[in-house]
Amino acid sequence: MKVLLLAAVLMLTSGHALAADACAAQIPRSLKVAIAKSYPKFRLPVATDNMPEDIDWSLKNGGKGCLGVAKADFDGDGKTDFVLGLTALDGSGGTVVVALARGSGWKVETLRAWPQYRDRLYVGTDKPGEYERTEALDGPLEPGERERLKCKHSAVVFGATESTGVAYCLNNGI
Predict the structure, then answer these.
(1) pTM here?
(2) Using CA atoms in the order 160, 164, 168, 174, what is the torsion angle rounded to 10 degrees?
């Protein structure tokens, strides 16, 4: 009986550990070091930063259970770049950063601060193409925002699950 109970506990905790490491496993060591140096008030994402129902949705729809890491070639140089949803060390917010592979290092830029509700933040990618501001956004354009955006390479996408999505693309800088 004790052996069965121990086996059940190990199975439950090992599944949780895998989910918690789903983000870390995707991030190269050199990028982990660069992020720690550039963003000392934040930590790298882990799967459990997000709500359990969002993690489950990701897993059921072919994702890895990590909503805080995505990768693609954002600048067309053939190298894998990353977008990360970092988590604040104190408080509930975070920040969205893009990391472009540069030789053996990284060019890391902040895309947007995420002051609250880190548990709903997702990051992702989308294919090259044209993006248009939806009619649901009726206010004035924010600095850097455009009505239409043409992405020659993969786009960075982030927002709040079940709520928003913002697309960024590299066009002569970030």
Answers:
(1) 0.82
(2) -50
Contact 26, 71 (CB under 8 A): yes
For 126-165, write each residue's pLDDT tens digit. 999 888 877 666 677 777 777 788 889 999 999 888 877 8
Look up tokens 């799967």; give the residue.
47
